């Protein structure tokens, strides 16, 4: 029987997993009960004494998970500004296995080049893991820029309606898909069918919402930048922002 136990798979979850894999142009997709559940599962592919380089501007809950929990289980981390390739190179150790970062970062909206970091990681035989929550596959597909694993907190733009808690992972290769798929089932942080359906519903309007949200965000950022009450506004769409491209 194909779907004999909901934790191991169900048609609603499978639909969403195939959908996000298609949108990110990956080998396979996996859905989880939250963004942190997705991140926790991905970092569980590593072994004791492995070292990972992480961006210096990531979600606070991710820092807590990695530095307070995973360090107790033998992983070590070095935090760097992933926009600085020399800083990444300097942080690489013999036991380094991956580089993890957000682009855009939460909350300062720092822009890291997935293509440049992935090329550096490839030179050193490292995995590139990207949290693509703030850009979504509508604006960026990290796997096509050289990344190996993409993570989303679907609670935000993908879900889109503030009524669902969910996380997503997309892998680039069958080998990584097998690792993440095994852990998804073994650890059990899976998404209920009802929640999977809400994320599916949200993705239907992703392109419309992202286009309008960019317009709104720029208008708000320009208003704040012009205000004498605001010392600085962080938004990469502002020409004065150091991340402007």
Helix and strand arrangement:
Elements: H1 11-24, E1 28-32, H2 35-43, E2 51-55, H3 60-69, E3 76-80, H4 85-91, E4 96-102, H5 114-123, E5 127-131, H6 136-139, E6 149-153, E7 167-171, H7 174-187, H8 193-204, H9 206-226
Parallel strand pairs: 2-3, 2-4, 4-5, 5-6
Antiparallel strand pairs: 1-7, 6-7
Helix pairs in contact: 1-8, 2-3
**What's the main sheet like?**
7 strands, mixed
Low-confidence stretches: none
Mean pLDDT, all residues: 97
Q: According to CATH, what is the class of the largest domain?
A: Alpha Beta
Which band does the percent of strand residues land in?
15-25%
**Helix fraction bin:** 40-55%
Q: Determine the N-to-C terminus distance.
A: 52 Å
> Under CATH, the topology of the largest domain is which?
Aspartate Aminotransferase, domain 2
- Gyration radius (Cα, Å) is 18 Å
Structural class: alpha/beta
The largest beta-sheet arranges its strands as: 1-7-6-5-4-2-3
Instruction: Tell me how many strands there are.
Output: 7
Q: Tell me, what's the shape? A: globular
């Amino acid at each position: 029987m194909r779907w004999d136990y909901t934790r191991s798979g169900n048609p609603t979850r499978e639909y969403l997993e195939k959908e996000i894999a298609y949108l990110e142009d990956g080998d396979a997709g996996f859905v989880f009960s939250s963004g942190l559940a997705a991140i926790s599962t991905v970092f569980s592919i590593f072994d004791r004494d492995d070292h990972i380089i992480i961006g210096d501007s990531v979600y606070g809950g991710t820092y807590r998970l990695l530095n307070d929990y995973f360090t107790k289980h033998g992983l070590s981390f070095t935090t760097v500004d992933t926009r600085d390739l020399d800083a990444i190179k300097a942080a690489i150790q013999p036991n380094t296995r991956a580089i993890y970062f957000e682009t855009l970062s939460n909350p300062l909206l720092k822009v890291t080049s997935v293509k440049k970091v992935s090329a550096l990681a490839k030179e050193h035989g490292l995995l590139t893991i990207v949290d693509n929550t703030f850009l979504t596959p509508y604006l960026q597909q990290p796997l096509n820029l050289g990344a190996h694993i993409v993570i989303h907190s679907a609670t935000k733009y993908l879900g889109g309606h503030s009524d669902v808690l969910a996380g997503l992972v997309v892998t680039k290769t069958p080998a990584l898909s097998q690792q993440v798929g095994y852990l998804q089932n073994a650890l059990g942080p899976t998404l209920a069918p009802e929640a999977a359906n809400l994320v599916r519903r949200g993705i239907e309007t992703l392109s419309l919402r992202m286009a309008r949200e960019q317009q709104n965000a720029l208008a708000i950022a320009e208003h704040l930048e012009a205000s004498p009450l605001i010392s600085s506004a962080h938004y990469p769409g502002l020409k004065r922002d150091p991340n402007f491209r």
